């Protein structure tokens, strides 16, 4: 045995063995790279296409899962932003609809499956109108001062919302807290929307979002001081 280990035949055997191992490794790598594989991409953002401009979608799943197939190199460094999933709402009217999810795979990959294959979509009419902004002043200015005048710019805002929200709007107003104010104050505030029962309404698009308010204060003249001056 010792004689065999020291012989040239043993060296040839080791060389052939290593060559076979290297061949198997290279061949296996080539097979792996040339064999299509599948990968599931989860939480792919779901887009909307061809929605009537007078409508808005108020309920739809945010994302879907997509199974893609292709060569391993096609998956390398593939960002989720290049994977497209969407629903086509051509001709869809307000109401609830069950629509098919569609996808566009990146170059070099095939789309195998979308999960779910269908989603439920709620469509509403989108309304907008101008509203006059009402003013609600609370608080007290600094001692010895009173509110003399104020200006609001603009006095009207454009409000837009889905029909189910828009129909609830009763009034829009600014809540102005003048606590501790004096001289001249310039502030910016967001409008608040409420329904007839006094409940706050959210989900509105208001343009402009901020209203500029200029507040002017004057000193309070004490009655005793005026009496003394008259005497």
Protein described:
- The strands form two sheets. Strands 1, 2, 3, 4, 5, 6, 7, 9, 10, 12 and 13 form an eleven-stranded mixed sheet that branches.
- With 231 residues, the chain is of the alpha+beta class.
- Mean pLDDT is 86; it is low at 26-32.
- The protein is elongated and about 115 Å long.
- Helix content is 20%, strand content 50%.
- A hairpin with a 6-residue loop joins strand 4 (84-88) and strand 5 (95-104).
- It has helices spanning 2-5, 8-34, 72-75, 163-166, 223-230; strands at residues 37-49, 55-59, 63-70, 84-88, 95-104, 109-115, 118-138, 145-153, 156-162, 171-177, 184-190, 192-194, 205-207, 210-219.
- It has five helices and 14 strands.
- The chain has two domains: 37-116, RNA Polymerase Alpha Subunit, Chain A, domain 2 (Beta Complex); 126-223, YbbR-like domain (RNA Polymerase Alpha Subunit, Chain A, domain 2), CATH 2.170.120.40.
- The longest helix is centred in the first third of the chain and has 27 residues, at 8-34.
